[in-house]
Amino acid sequence: MTPTILTKDGRVAIVIGTPGGSRIATSIFQVLSNWHDYHMSLEAAVSAPRIHHQLLPPDTIFEEPYATIHPTARKVLVDRGYTFVTQGWNGDMQVIAVASSGTAAVSDPRGRGVARVLLPEGAASGPSGHP
After folding, report:
1. Of 36, 19, 16, 44, which is closest to residue 109 (Cα–Cα)?
2. H or E, element range at 38
3. What is the pLDDT of residues 77-114, one digit of tens each?
4. pLDDT by residue (tens digit) across 36-54?
5. End-to-end distance of the chain based on CA atoms, in angstroms?
6. Facing residues of 85 across strands?
7. What 3-state class would DSSP assign to 118?
8. Which helix (H) or strand (E) holds 66?
């Protein structure tokens, strides 16, 4: 599951990964959805709140203290019978996106890593990594 490599037109477009066992799939999905579907920058997508539902127990949603979901969304879920349980963390995402506009790398602020793009002199590095 991790690292996950997505391609576009036969070329690498994004490489994303995180530790987290059963939480890997939900973490990667949420970051990719934030970035692709909601057009967030890579930095914002990685920093955004992440939750996890394990299926068992059926009404429990795991949430981290780093970034919590919007109170309105939380209320809607609680009103539907879900209970929130705080967990220590939800991944340590690392992402590299390659596009015609340049290359971008992001390290999860929840973790201890750093991201750097090393390119030849004169090469472009884009802030969002969007194709």
Report:
1. 44
2. none
3. 999 999 999 987 778 999 999 988 889 999 999 988 89
4. 999 999 999 999 999 999 8
5. 23
6. 62
7. coil
8. none
